[in-house]
Amino acid sequence: MSLYLRARTAVAVAVLMTLLMALPASAITYGERDEEDEYPYVVVVYIFVEIDGVTLPAWGCSGSVVQEDLVLSVAHCTGEFVPGLEPAASWVLFGNDLSDFGQLIPHMLDPDFDVSDPPSVEDLSIDRIVTGTPKAHPEFDGFADFPQTYDIGVVELHETVSELDYGPFPEIAPPGYLDELDRENPRSGIDLTVVGYGDQRVQVTGAVIDPVTGEPSLTTEHTWDGWRHFGSASLVNLRSSNAGGHNMQISGNAGTNGSGTCYGDSGGPILHGDTIVGLTSFGIGNPMCRGNTNFAYRADTEAALDFLDVYLD
């Protein structure tokens, strides 16, 4: 089984470690730009790691502000996305248009860079940057256990954000919410909305020989416009071997009249109305983000809600 996580890794660490993909993040596949800022609480979570005493940009994903000092995301973003690289800090970026993100990179790579003091975004498309502390579910183990992955995490914000500016904040589904919906609509399907900042399209551009393994690997090009995107989807399965009651499979391509998820969408909300029922987590079988291979970690399970109870007011 080929499992593809939906986080986006960064250029700086890729150069130094020679094991990561390239930045930046992009958009929901087959979706549309959130030009009207319908989902202002959906944000980018950007993670920094410390290597040999130097703080470096590492990877990014999506998330949702669920209270004035807390962002909900996934553990493979707020925890060890790359084995051995523990997140040291995070920035949370607000705004439906983050196309000026590239202008922040020189600041991140400056020798005097201080992750606790983000640069001004006054002249950029970005609305705001808030620093935070990332936390992963304590039982997350990098998908060693499956299908119960415990892929849920949070970022504790170092300053509060107003629901007047970025709300109303979404509700989190109560226990068994999806099971009840599935019982009530066993054949009609359940309409969902996916939101995030992940790749809109991934294309193969060639192949190279991996210098470590000696095996051929594909080179790819990631399309990004910098905008928050959203799209429609529907519930496919709650109880397959890959779902197991812990994950939810959602429809994910244009052929199903829906929208899918891709790299960078990790942690973004799967919404039923204004309620978060899942968090974009992984895809299976297709690294180009095509097909009905999209999975989200359920937000309505005992494991998820017990974890969140520690952080929610």
Write the layout of secondary structure elements.
Blueprint: E1 3-5, E2 8-9, H1 11-17, E3 32-33, E4 42-51, E5 54-67, E6 70-73, H2 75-78, E7 87-94, H3 105-108, E8 128-136, E9 153-157, H4 163-166, E10 171-172, H5 177-184, E11 191-196, E12 201-209, E13 216-223, E14 229-237, E15 247-250, E16 269-272, E17 275-284, E18 294-298, H6 302-309
Explained architecture:
The protein has 313 residues and is mainly beta. The chain folds into two domains: 3-27 and 40-169, Thrombin, subunit H (Beta Barrel), CATH 2.40.10.10; 177-301, Trypsin-like serine proteases (Thrombin, subunit H, Beta Barrel). 11% of the residues lie in helices and 36% in strands. It has six helices and 18 strands. The strands form three sheets. It has a six-stranded antiparallel barrel with strand order 11-14-15-18-17-16. A six-stranded antiparallel β-barrel has the order 4-5-6-9-8-7. The longest helix has 8 residues, at 177-184. Mean pLDDT is 83; it is low at 11-28 and 254-258.
Number of helices: 6
Order of strands in the sheet with most strands? 11-14-15-18-17-16
Q: What's the architecture of the largest domain in CATH terms?
A: Beta Barrel
Give the topology string: H per helix, E per strand.
EEHEEEEHEHEEHEHEEEEEEEEH
User: pLDDT under 50 segments (min length 5)?
Assistant: 11-28, 254-258
Largest sheet, if any?
6 strands, antiparallel, barrel
What would CATH call the class of the largest domain?
Answer: Mainly Beta
Helix/strand class: mainly beta
- For the secondary structure, the number of strands is 18
Mean pLDDT across residues: 83
Distance between the termini: 39 Å
CATH domain topology of the largest domain? Thrombin, subunit H
Helix content: 10-25%
CATH superfamily of the largest domain: Trypsin-like serine proteases
Percent in strands: 35-45%
Give the count of structural domains: 2
CA-based gyration radius: 18 Å
Shape: globular
